[in-house]
Amino acid sequence: MVIRKASLGDVDQMKTLIDFYASKSRMLPRSLSYIYEHVREYTVCKEGELVIGCCALHVTWRDLAEVKSLAVDPRYMNKGVGKDLLFAALKEAKEMGINEVFTLTLESEFFLKNGFKKTSKEKLPMKIWGECIQCNKYPNCDEEALVYKIK
């Protein structure tokens, strides 16, 4: 397995992974256009030519970023792929000088096991809610907010 920044050739497989979880209401959907426009935010895990996982790090402010669209092929669950992708995103955030990373998720147990702490959505800056207006769950969001302080 190789973890690296996503390339344009990875986008279709990334979309398939994200769509799989979005169809089960476990993740927000992402359009193909969105993924292409944000491809530089994504890291992928590949086995040969197969994208088996992806994760985005979206910078929201000078010292704040969001982990988004963390998806792992179900055939590779519980093999450390999600954790490796998450820690690649956290390493990237640290290298950029970001002090705090947050996520809005339905999979809070995974993030809690990996050092995130629960927080109130109201403690996050208003700037992060820009995408929410487009979400099919707005204004009744059932995602939990979690944060990770970078040391």
Would you kindly provide a written description of the structure presented here, covering whatever features stand out?
By secondary structure, the protein is of the alpha+beta class. The chain has one domain: Aminopeptidase (3-Layer(aba) Sandwich), CATH 3.40.630.30. The protein has 4 helices and 7 strands. It has a 7-stranded mixed beta sheet. A hairpin with a 2-residue loop joins strand 2 and strand 3. It is globular. The two termini are 27 Å apart. The mean pLDDT is 91.
Layout of secondary structure:
Layout: E1 2-5, H1 11-23, H2 32-37, E2 42-47, E3 50-61, E4 64-72, H3 81-96, E5 100-105, H4 108-113, E6 117-119, E7 144-149
Parallel strand pairs: 4-5
Antiparallel strand pairs: 1-2, 2-3, 3-4, 5-7, 6-7
Write a brief caption for the model.
With 151 residues, this protein is an alpha+beta fold.
Characteristics:
Aminopeptidase, 151 residues, alpha+beta, single chain
Largest sheet: 7 strands, mixed
SS strand fraction: 25-35%
Strand order of the largest sheet: 1-2-3-4-5-7-6
Instruction: From the alpha carbons, calculate the radius of gyration and give it in angstroms.
Output: 14 Å
**Ends: how far apart?**
27 Å
Number-wise, the strands total 7
Number of domain units: 1
| Oligomerization state | single chain
- Give the uncertain stretches in residue-range form: none
